[in-house]
Amino acid sequence: MRKTILLSTLLLSFSCAASSDMLSAWNDTPAKQAIEKWVQDATREGSPDFIPLNKRYVVFDNDGTLWPEAPLTYQLQFAVDEIKRQAPDKPEWKNDPLVNAVLNNDLKAVAASGEKGLLKLVALTHSGMTTEAFSQRVATWMDTHKDKRTGCRYDRMGYQPMRQLLDYLRTNGFKTWIVSGGGIDFMRVVSEKMYGIPPEQVIGSFSLSEFSLTDNGTQLRKTMKGAFNDDAVEKPVAIHLFMGQRPVAAFGNSDGDLAMLQYTAANPDYKTFELLVHHTDSEREYAYDSHPPASGKLVNGLTQAAQKGWTVVDMKQDWKTIFDPALCKAQNIGATK
């Protein structure tokens, strides 16, 4: 009996040590402890909070949750760079005020154009080509462009603590999904490489493609028809459409993720987990909530987190590193403090 108790104690200690190692980019603060406790309770058979394997679906926002969204979201930066790349071959664009604002780096004017202007930039750079051609453009951009502040390639700037969290959850039998306002075709190019999330587990904004027969077979051509913006209250709609079941955990960073967290928290069958990433580190990343540089406003989410007991990650206090130094070697950005 004594040997059995000793063995059980050793196994429990090993399990705790293993999980701590998997989250090595996290400081040992209440945020990390809350994650580990929920996972341990959800995966321990006999626990009142046990969640069966076939119900362990968890959802993550992308912009600001898995990678930066400041000073511009990466997809908007891609659109800006594509406008500049294509402009010499598009004389019909020369009298367009929005295009000229992009070419003159007048981001204030771009921002002032509002949602209508952003949709126009997306239409100019995300439609009118085959899905394969678009994926290749994104892949080439990822390979050749770098974040101006860090000097790191965009596809190497996933937050190390969140990438570790994705691995930790999958090791414990959870199925990880991205549910983001970013374009579904844009994110699918890099989701598996960056996060280990296959394309079929990526949900995002989309529009309908057109199918046609060609001399070489078939093709899908991107259009702006039926555009669906996967943000705010539309996130639960998209989760139901693509996943077919309610998640047991949700991770976001802004009020645009609030409906997704509320939908998850209302799961009637299991004890769920909700987490918001709060950008508080101006030295290693950016600090914002009510006044973000571009997107990611976080006001109502913080209020509800305090009321409902959701976990809020303070990037400055809770994360040892922001970016993996093996992938992003920029000085003073993302380094261990």
**Rough shape?**
globular
Low-confidence stretches: 1-17
Number of DSSP helices? Answer: 14
The helix/strand series, from N terminus to C terminus, equals: HHEHHHHHHEHHEEHEHEHEH
Q: Structural class given helices, strands, pairing? A: alpha/beta
Question: What is the CA-CA span between the terminal residues?
Answer: 46 Å
How many DSSP-defined strands? Answer: 7
Q: What strand order characterises the main sheet? A: 4-3-2-1-5-6-7
Largest beta-sheet details: 7 strands, mixed
* Strand residues, percent: 15-25%
Helix content: 40-55%
Radius of gyration: 21 Å
Give average pLDDT, whole number: 92
Notable traits:
single chain, 14 helices, 7 strands, 42% helix, 337 residues
What does this entry look like structurally?
- By secondary structure, the chain is α/β, with parallel strands linked by helices.
- Helices cover 42% and strands 15% of the residues.
- The chain has helices at 2-22, 30-43, 74-86, 97-103, 107-112, 114-126, 131-144, 160-171, 184-188, 191-195, 234-242, 258-265, 300-308, 315-318; strands at 57-60, 175-183, 202-214, 217-228, 249-252, 273-278, 311-314.
- A seven-stranded mixed beta sheet has the order 4-3-2-1-5-6-7, sandwiched between helices.
- Strand 5, helix 12 (258-265) and strand 6 form a beta-alpha-beta unit.
- Helix 3 (74-86) crosses helix 6.
- The chain is globular.
- The chain starts with a helix and ends in a 19-residue tail after the last helix.
- Mean pLDDT is 92; it is low at 1-17.
